[in-house]
Amino acid sequence: MTYKMYLLRHAQSADKQTGQSDKQRILSPSGKKDAMLLGNFLKTRNQIPDFILTSSATRALSMSAIVAHEISFSPDLIKVEEELYEATPGIYWDITRGLDLHHQRVLITGHNPAISAFAGELTGTSIDMKPCELACIQIRKKWDHVAPRSGTLDYIFNPASFGNL
Fold first, then answer.
1. Looking at the chain, which runs of residues are DSSP E strands?
2. Phi, psi at residue 116, to the nearest 5°?
């Protein structure tokens, strides 16, 4: 059985406002547009996850909700994972190895530098994810047996690089 991991760095966020914590930063207007384009990309290519995990940061939650809307995925089914905010690659490993085996296509929305580092460790390649960039990785091991270099990078997609779809 092949599993699919979609690693998604949140889209461009707005500047931090006075009195606002980093965790409370929202998506910029262009970030929202890119999130919609990314969701549309997934939908038109039938690349629909069956489970979505997201960081608890406002910008990541918004990103996941917009993508979920575009792919007709119920936002109520998005699981907020507190540890993904200020995560390390080790946290991504722990979360991945703890995934329920009936989920075959999982999307995780997170932040740099950890999401890029995890994608690189998982595939054995150097990956520097830009805002709103999606790395699709094929995994031929069960989630609880995932190890470094056990994934193969299928593609990286960034709507800002491709304009309107």
1. 3-9, 51-54, 79-80, 105-110, 134-139, 151-157
2. -65, -45
* Whether this model's pTM surpasses 0.90: yes
* Strand, helix or coil for residue 17: coil
Alpha carbon distance 148, 151 (integer Å): 8
Chain segment 35-56, per-residue pLDDT in tens? 999 999 999 999 999 999 999 9
CATH code at 38?
3.40.50.1240
Q: Show Cβ contacts of residue 36 under 8 Å, excluding neighbours closer than 6 positions.
A: 66, 70
For residue 145 the two structure tokens come to 């047996």
Q: Give me the domain span that covers residue 62.
A: 3-11+26-136
CA 84 to chain centre: 10
